[in-house]
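Project standup — Tuesday

K.O.: blocked on the structure for the chain from last sprint. Re-posting the sequence here as requested.
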Amino acid sequence: MQFKEDKEYVESLKKEDFSAFDALFHKYSEKLYAFALSITRDTFAAEEITQLVFLKIWEKRAQINEHLSFKSFLFSVAYNETISWLRTEKSQKRRIDEFTKSAGFSSNETEFGIEFRNIEGLANQLIAEMPEKRKEIFKLSREQGFSNKEIAERLEISVKTVENQMTSALKFLREKLGKNDILGLLFYFLLLHR
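H.V.: unblocked you, prediction finished:
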């Protein structure tokens, strides 16, 4: 069973077993690269993000919960690193324009405005359904652009609590939305930080 195998690797990884790290890298690096490439459309960025994600896995190995899905944790880290790259990329506006076209948004400004308002309304509705603390953390992250560390300091909670709440918020959104709506929400939150 895949999860049990990952659990054993994570247990070894936490004991600083580099062979377990190497096994996880070989198992997931191509999938992570494809994920990052599908969003960034930049091979160099996808390679850099993949390496950065695994560097963070090694650095934070002691904090990984072996009883939870390693794959989900890994892709959460990859998602955060990819979004961070998009926010700091110099040609972000061009990439957002490409994303708009690939996601099927209309180039007509009036139609785009209507679609954008629909997505904004959907985002606000779903965020309103979240528990109060999760909602506050999610808004600080996605609407105001605070890092997990900044949110933890601001709310006087641990970074791990922030990470757990963000993971729960994103899981909630994925469960409530289809693939296209998730892409739309991602685009909406990217626009907030242009």
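K.O.: great, moving the ticket to review. The longest helix spans residues 18-40. The two ends are 43 Å apart (CA to CA).
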